[in-house]
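quick one
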Amino acid sequence: MKAAFAPKYGQADVVEIRDLPRPVPQTGEVLVEVHATTVTRTDRETLRAHPWFARPMTGLMRPKQPVLGVDFAGRVAEVGAGVTGFSPGDRVFGLSPVRNGCHAEFVAVAADGAIARLPDTIPFHEAVVGEGVWYAHSNLEAFGLGPGQNALIYGASGAIGTAALQLAKVRDATVTAVVGPQHMALAHDLGADLVIDYTSEDFTRRPERYDLVFDAVGKTTYPACRRLLKPDGAFYASDLGPWGQTAWLALWSAIARTRRVAIGMPRDPRDVIGFLGDMLADGRYRAVIDSHYPLDDIADAYAHVATEQKTGIVVVDVKPG
Ligand SMILES: NC(=O)c1ccc[n+]([C@@H]2O[C@H](COP(=O)([O-])OP(=O)(O)OC[C@H]3O[C@@H](n4cnc5c(N)ncnc54)[C@H](OP(=O)(O)O)[C@@H]3O)[C@@H](O)[C@H]2O)c1
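structure w/ NAP:
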């Protein structure tokens, strides 16, 4: 099968298209013929071994999993022994966060993992939003965002930001989205109650007060946002923040039990895949797609993701149509 292979750590240009053996589904596994996948910020950070302290997990000298890729959507090609929930031909989607391997024509995943049937009405390329939804959901769930609460989402135009905005609206929160000028219409379309252009206004000087400020791009800080928080409000982030400061403040917050600063730890991805198909089918969740690349051009997709300026997700069409 054709796959995108990273023989060493580096930038987009280290990724090569290779012919690799097709995986054989083991007991309890499903072999998926991948129709669509994505290049995410996680793939890009894994490719360049960032942060350095992740190397014991991702591989000390080179990527332990040389075929990256977390999101998949496609059809079941084969099932391993003991699998009863899926059959060849089923349309499925999901996440492979530990073994990765989705940047390929076939990927083997656990049948009891983060995989679910994909409703017929949803094209494969619209179903590969899972990773952004996973991180956004993990943070909103850890905070416990609910009806009537007021949330500000900083960087509401990225994969995690567009997911956080939509999920916060599903939770009946009032949402302020902070985005660049070219993303203001999108943020309104996704349901934001108030949209602020970070290039023309200092959002930290606004009069509103929030239960939750969620930094979805790791480009603001708790000290900058502190005055926006209600007395029992909290600052959550999807990233370690400038110079890792959000991580240190989150650690201090946990030790002091203040709940003031946190980085929501990834929850069980099966929960996300469980509800995402229904939300895509009934229109409560909409895929925001920046661009499409064929698998042969995946290095270009990596280079684009590295600009840190994508809008939503970057799709790789492994088997178009
Ligand atoms: N916790 C985890 O394990 C985990 C997993 C995945 C990702 N992450 C981190 O989460 C963050 C978000 O990931 P992502 O994939 O959602 O990012 P992304 O899609 O690459 O985000 C890009 C978006 O952010 C906007 N942006 C860039 N600079 C901005 C700024 N200064 N203020 C506001 N918006 C800005 C860009 O639009 P404009 O530049 O046009 O405004 C663009 O639309 C990243 O830092 C990533 O490393 C963490």
